[in-house]
Amino acid sequence: MARDFNAKNIITGAATVYVGKNGVENNRINVSSATSTAQDPANVTTVTDGDWYHLGYTMEGVTLNIEPTFNDVMVDQLLDTARLFKTQQRVTVATSLTEATLENLYVAIGGAGGATGDYQTASSGASYNEITIADSSASTLGAAGASAVFVSGSAAAQVQNLLHLNGGSLGIAPVERSMCFVGSAPTSVAESGGAGKKAERIYMVYRAVSVEAVGVGVRRDDATVFPVNFRVLPSTSNEAPDGNAAYGKIVDRLF
User: Are 15 and 183 in contact (CB under 8 A)?
Assistant: First the structure.
């Protein structure tokens, strides 16, 4: 029987975006109950290989791009190619972070974590510092932070957060994070679960590296946003069913 047209398979709506800790490949998400949505960060709790941190409001949605590259095999007897074979593949995730916290900028530019990393804070308990604290970034300001602002010629204890724009060095590996975004699933998926069921779609990638320019605009008539494009790399520990390295997975969840 031919497949019918079904408007209930059309998806609209925004997604909630999460990232994992520096250098950890997350392959699961943990929600607080069987009826809780993972689109609400309050429902997402930490488990092994499943520590996720919310990036807040976004603009222009989230886009997962899968870009294969094929080469042609040309033969004398045909005008067009006789066969295609894949030579490369590139996967990216793009969005714009609308909450202009220094922590979001730290994630967008691939800032280094750790006690000697690029981020320092005097507000380690603040909700906007969860990612940096998970990365074991300094929870106190160093000398550069404590003396960044002077009042009447003397250092003032007014600095709350400090992000160093690090010049880097040769041979340093880029910061890798897992990334997850949760949005709507088709209504038909929810209906397949029975009365009262809801559905959401969870996109998860294991290794994401911020690879493109991040512009920080300060404008009179527009919001400051951080456009970010993550290059997704094949996992070193998670496989697809055929044994090949996996980029991630997409899950339709009933709740």
Answer: yes
